[in-house]
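Annotated sample (chain length 55).
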Amino acid sequence: MARAYSDDLRSKFVIAYETGNTGLKKLAATFPVSRAWAERILKTKPVDPAALPVV
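Output written by the structure step:
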């Protein structure tokens, strides 16, 4: 069975995606992860409460 990726890798991946102009495919190749994993991580990342609209 494959080992789970560390939270540190997840954090670094999300930060690199949000701060750079690198596409998802190239970023997934830079980190040792699959594109499917990258898409899943970006979909499930926590939402920043400060970014939500005020109602």
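Annotation: Residues 7-45 form one domain.
Annotation: The first helix runs from residue 7 to 19.
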